[in-house]
Amino acid sequence: MTLKDISINNLRRRKGKVFFLVLGLTIGITTVVTLITITRMMNEDIARKLDEFGANILVIPRSDDLTFSYGGMTIGGVTMDAQSLKESDIPKIRQIEVRENISTVSPKLLGAVELEGKKVPLVGVLFSEEVRLKKWWKIHGTVPKSPDEVLLGNEVAVRLFKSTGDFLSIHGKAVRISGILEETGSQDDVLIFADLPFVQAVMNKPGALSLIEVSAFCNTCPIEEIVHQVSKQLPHAKVTAIKQTLQTRMETLNRFKRFSVGISVVVLLIGSIIVFTNMMASVNERSREIGIFRAIGFRKSHVMRIIFLEAVVVGLTAGALGYLVGLGVSRFVGPLITGIRGGPIHLDPLLALGAMLLSAVLGVASSAYPAIHASKMDPTAALRSL
Amino acid sequence: MNLIEIRGLNKIYLFGEEPVRALCNVNLNIPRGEFLSVMGPSGSGKSTLLTILGGLNHPTEGEVVVDGIPIYKLSLEKLADFRREYLGFIFQSFQLIPYLTVIENVMLPLAVTRMSKGRQVAIAEDILERVGLKEKQKRLPDQLSGGEQERVAIARALVNRPPILMADEPTGNLDTRTGKEIMDLFKALHQEGQTIIMVTHNPENAAYGTRTLLLRDGRVEGDGVGRREV
Lengths: 386, 230
Description:
heterodimer, A: 12 strands, 53% helix, B: alpha/beta, 4-stranded antiparallel beta sheet
């Protein structure tokens, strides 16, 4: 026989009241879990969209007189010698504190090449990174696999009358066109993409880079934080976040987060009040019983432990139920609220543990006053028949 | 040597602003092994005396010393420990916990000790055998007769082997035959050396005691030593 046995047996006896106690807390925990899960869905959706939209951070050499137009290719006259980017800067970007948020780092060296009397922009890239960055690329042919293969933008291919499999001569070196991009409507249409080391070699700029495009997820930190950390790693570079429409989505998400916190607090408060009133009524109903406990030698702390143990059992049960119901509700309600199609339900042990812990803490906190009240009951008043 | 010594005991209750004297200058010594019956009309102070002796009700004045311990100088938590170690209560109307089985009710005082569950069960079963209820140990109180519930209450009061057994009208809710069985059990316990203090209205029950204390208006009106044969 332990105090725990007394608590459990009492809960078993009062099934109806325990049901309402558990229900009160379960509603609160369900609301919290639902809102957290929906917020996560929105976060994941934004991350996915960021990924689809390509780079959202641009790293370029720091220069006072630099007017850099990547699309328009106004790179001439740029004083890049003093503070140019280098290949050794890439690992530094990968070493920032929030590196887990970085998806792709795509270095580029820009230049120009004269082909058949026409000046054409040439970009050296790492194709493995570039293809990850530009998921929307559709290529007739294949991505270049060796340094003597290039990829042509649609417009430049038309102007040069070239197609897949043809050869070009770049600074006297013959290269094969492995693929041609479908029209993108962007700067990529007028560019020749070649292997980065090849371009560095032909332009006689070993290890040099013109810019680095970075794609970062931003689930857990603001994009400004990533920009700040990259800037710290590369003091000679100018790091800017590319403002996109996603920023609006982030603001919407932040507003939703604030709304969620507000709703959660209100619902949890209501749940706590239900627990408080139920526990208080229970303690008053059990005054005779508490009198017996005290008369046979239970200390005040023993009486309090009986009440708190009941609160913990109720809290943990409500936490587990609230978590499961919350997952189910967010699966069906989430898509209605956010317009995001729901994926499969993922069981998150950390969220489950958090829900149970929160519920237990609320249960105990709401039972604190009833427990103190119970422990202070006068045993002779409680046992009027004595 | 006296197990209990009461000196200059006064208890005044306040009803609104009006003081009501429940006990007036009570002095009493109770030796170890005594079976004391406390009698008196309603409102005479019997229950107040029992609650004060039981460490449940602070006196207005006076001292209660049990086994050399001035119990009302103890902190409230120490006083609870004192009740657990020294006293076994048998309440009127049995006062069993309705959601605990017979054996769980008997083990209740042991729930706050460090005793293992196996040891608790062994002790509780021994006592239930003594009161003739071992076979019904898994039942709930409402599945027992009044006499059986009283026996469970006695078993619970004895489980921690207290030096003092306190009973308040132990046969008040029982028929005559069952009441006699219970009083015979008290008699047997007393013969084994148990100190018993029993409040009763019933002179036949009081006759089981070795000494009868008569209270009236909070004062000791009679203190008869000696047992009438029953």
